[in-house]
TrEMBL record:
GO terms for cellular component: plasma membrane. This is Branched-chain amino acid ABC transporter permease. Pfam families: BPD_transp_2. GO terms for molecular function: branched-chain amino acid transmembrane transporter activity. It is a multi-pass membrane protein. Its main location: membrane. It comes from the Bacteria. It is found in: Cell membrane. It comes from Microbaculum marinisediminis.
Length: 331
């Protein structure tokens, strides 16, 4: 393990400890904001799996985020009476629907048509636009106004304090980070990274790259649904904007600025960029859009590891051959 990799490991641990301690010393308004950003962070880590590890660029991840949010809202608001109105059932449906949707998209694009690269990105972009339009026109889903009154985190019918909600969200985010880290460092994760570097080579060695990418896409879809449900619980409402192209583009910016190939960097990008947007919009008005856009361009042009990727990169698992190893070391 090189010194850089050791520093990345220590820095990652330190960041999680800082976030843990923040729950004890930061005021409630900031804790509530951070808890919401943790949902964004889970969303970003899912995208990091398919984009940063497998090299699959998707402009439609908000479809699954919104599907999870709406599924959770429909159940907990009692709009699907045959499923009850429990929060547990809401989360179950919020995982099931995006998982099925992402599986369908993967089957149609990867397995059915063998789409990749720009073709796949364009298809997902169009799908996000169609999904947002469909939700907007669905009266059952509240149309343009969305659905309000989504219940917050509760135990025994009592709403949890802000600090308790913060720690729960932090624990969920940490759990997702740990699981994805294990996946990335598994033989399957090594294959995903090999696909990112040279998909044809992996296919020629006898691996079904379409299936490997589909599994990663479904995992990312399920995590997006989970993030959407957590977001709905934090905000208390859902709207068509959670399904469309705008949010899909935002999460791409968060991940690119943080560092798409490093989970912790992608997670922090989803905390830092929205926080910067809130701060800059209050100070600079509409000019903040130019600054965020410039930061995105700089992050993409300067390094695919983003602003934080090089600092937070963890020790890499054994690579899929020497070529993949050398390319990854260059990245």
């Amino acid at each position: 393990m090189t010194a850089v990799r050791r520093h990345g490991l220590f820095l990652t641990i330190a960041i999680w400890l800082v976030l843990l301690l923040a729950g004890l010393v930061v005021d409630e308004w900031v804790l509530a904001l951070l808890a919401t950003y943790f949902a964004y962070g889970i969303f970003a880590m899912g995208l990091s799996l398919i984009w940063g590890q497998a090299g699959v660029l998707s402009f439609g991840q908000a479809i699954f985020f919104g599907a999870g949010a709406y599924s959770f809202a429909l159940v907990t608001l009692g709009m699907l009476p045959w499923l009850g109105d429990s929060i547990a059932m809401g989360f179950l449906l919020a995982l099931a629907v995006p998982t099925l949707l992402s599986g369908l998209v993967a089957w149609v694009t990867f397995a059915g048509r063998g789409l990749s690269g720009a073709h796949f990105a364009i298809v997902t972009l169009c799908a996000a636009a169609v999904a947002e339009t469909a939700v907007t026109r669905a009266d059952f889903l509240g149309g343009y106004n969305g659905l309000f009154g989504v219940p917050p985190m509760m135990i025994g019918g009592e709403m949890l304090e802000v600090s308790a909600q913060y720690f729960i969200m932090l624990l969920v985010a940490l759990g997702v980070f740990a699981v994805l880290s294990l996946i990335i460092r598994s033989p399957y994760g090594t294959l995903l990274q090999a696909i990112r570097e040279d998909e044809n080579r992996v296919a020629h060695l006898g691996y079904d790259t379409r299936w490997l990418k589909s599994v990663a896409f479904i995992i990312a879809g399920a995590l997006s649904g989970l993030a959407g449900a957590l977001f709905a619980m934090q905000f208390g409402f859902v709207s068509p904007s959670l399904v469309g192209f705008a949010l899909s583009t935002q999460v791409l910016i968060w991940v690119a600025v943080g560092g798409r190939s490093v989970l912790m960097a992608a997670f922090l990008g989803a905390l830092i960029v929205p926080g910067a947007e809130n701060t800059l919009s209050n100070i600079l008005g509409d000019i903040w859009l130019l600054l965020i856009g410039a930061l995105f361009v700089l992050a993409v042009v300067a390094s695919r590891n983003g602003v934080l990727g090089a600092l937070l990169r963890l020790p890499d698992p054994e690579r899929f051959g020497r070529n993949a190893d050398s390319e990854t070391q260059k990245g």
